Sequence to fold (510 residues):
Amino acid sequence: MTTAAAGSPRTYEVRTYGCQMNVHDSERISGLMEQAGYVRAADTAGNPDVVVFNTCAVRENADNRLYGNLGHLRPVKDKHPGMQIAVGGCLAQKDRGDIVRKAPWVDVVFGTHNIGSLPVLLERARHNAAAEVEILESLDVFPSTLPTRRESTYAGWVSISVGCNNTCTFCIVPALRGKEKDRRPGDILSEVRTLVDSGVLEVTLLGQNVNSYGVDFGDAGEPNWKRGGGRSAFAELLRACGDIDGLERVRFTSPHPKDFTDDVIAAMAETPNVCHSLHMPLQSGSDDVLRAMRRSYRSDRYLGIIEKVRAAMPDAAITTDIIVGFPGETEADFQRTLDVVRAARFSSAFTFQYSKRPGTPAATMDGQIPKQVVQERYERLIACVEEISWAENKKLVGETVEVLVAVGEGRKDVRTGRLSGRARDGRLAHFDAGSLAGQIRPGDIVHTTVTYAAPHHLNADGEPLAHRRTRAGDAAEAGRSPRTPGVLLGLPTIGAPAAAAAPTTGCAAH
Ligand code: SF4
Fold:
């Protein structure tokens, strides 16, 4: 395999680790690279000219993984003169110059606040034949102003804020992504409209704490905003999404129980295109553990929100995140978590065993729990969560669900001949296409009847009741992915990178 031949455009590959924020940042990295003239390596034969690692710092062994992967790439780079390696994301923001000290064959290190600089840094590193490390302490431009190559034709992420003003003791986000910065509603809505214009049916509004969105705007801050900003801003944003023609599904992640207000529940219930699904992190059901986590709500408040959501939307699917084995967690604390799980009746839960995240306050707390205790509690938690989610899913057998057909949800589909997608409430559904086999495309909408429920998915094995071809389906069939152009405010523009020079020596740049 070779890197791009002389005269052909340079190619790139992005390898992503971590959360939705990173997945969406990688869409921006791809958009930037393509605007700068690079071509995605998967679309061409040969070895990528640039490999970008978009890293995550939330796992204890994240750095081992990164340096392991960088080690594997070293011989590849040695064989391909002109190849460049860039490292960005949370681990880059944390480790900075250490990365090029530990892996001197890395060409560029960039942080979470300056994704937009990547093409310039790559050019500079190539020109100077030296590594470029650029980490900013705060955001230079809101990342959504960057061009974005979207991975899905039917569903898109839209950032409403970055960073977080909370200080949960297990979380690295405030240290690495900084204070919350909210995006103006007009900019958010115009990005949503651009996505919908290109066929997207579903949008997920993304922020570390969507409920604190707009608190600082004040009524005077946004002249076009119906009822001003302040505490009602997120509810207003949901209602405004309801006015966008062609937008069929609106989701959001993540809300924070501390800031969750009733007007958001009303907006969800009263805005037809807002899905009745709520992913609200619990983390622990014990008030003592919540206090130690520095999460300033208590279990009764959490359950109170759920009660109101269910009263307003009886069909709502509620999902959560739970950490077991936080430092100091006793068996009694863990039992409180099980109590809340039973009372909340989650349709699914992301469960995590607490692991130290270097740089967070919890990593150095007393009372770290032995691994076997954490493991044992974790297994009991999963059994409890699955029993409930299975019971909740079984209630849907015989019901009609609207499925937005996805690409590659579930490997079993290939074997079973089923297609997959998400119901409006976010549940994963596998369905038999019946006589419509071959006609249903990713992005189309299918109505079908649930015939079987498992803890993590629904099956619908009868003939579909209806199939609607959509513009997202047309785009998927044509192989088009939506792009949002971005506005390169304050960023230097550079032209397309010079085409790859024919290799003249067998040596890599460094
Ligand atoms: S709310 Fe807590 S867990 Fe979530 S990003 Fe902010 S600090 Fe981290």
